[in-house]
Amino acid sequence: YQNYIRKTQVMMVYEEINHYRIPYETLINGGVGVTGFSPNGLNMLEETKNCQFSVTVPMKDSATPNAVKCSIQNLPYLQEQTLSLDRTTDGKWQCKASAGIPAAYLPQACQ
Fold first, then answer.
1. What is the predicted pLDDT for the residue at 33?
2. Are 83 and 70 in contact (CB under 8 A)?
3. Contact yes or no for 56/37 (Cβ under 8 A)
4. What is the dihedral of CA 23, 99, 79, 19, to 10 degrees?
5. What are the residues whose beta carbons fall under 8 Å from the beta carbon of 54, sequence distance 6 or more?
6. Is the pLDDT of residue 44 over 90?
7. What distance in Å separates the CA atoms of residue 59 and residue 1, rounded to the nearest whole number?
8. 64-72, strands of its sheet edge to edge
9. Rounded Cα–Cα distance for residues 80 and 33 (Å)
10. Nearest CA to 96 among 105, 85, 104, 107?
């Protein structure tokens, strides 16, 4: 039962960072300058119950690691852990989890 609860909590974190993908792409396609790439610039929250968000400015003609990153908070079993979305050179998104998050808790997209 505990594993199910933890997996659900990590899935909720994953869903939270996924909400950033469309605003992020909108800024890229709109040609907004560097200052637009922040949670505020994306019109998103900087913090939720389980996440402290950070956003990385896209790198021209290369991949952007940690494009959207959640520093997980208020989940004692995941202290100092992160879940992030990397943006590939071709505009696709990949989930990346820090090493301290057990694979059993991760959504399929992050494994």
1. 52
2. yes
3. yes
4. 10
5. 39, 66, 68, 69, 71
6. no
7. 42
8. 51-55, 64-72, 82-87, 93-97
9. 31
10. 85
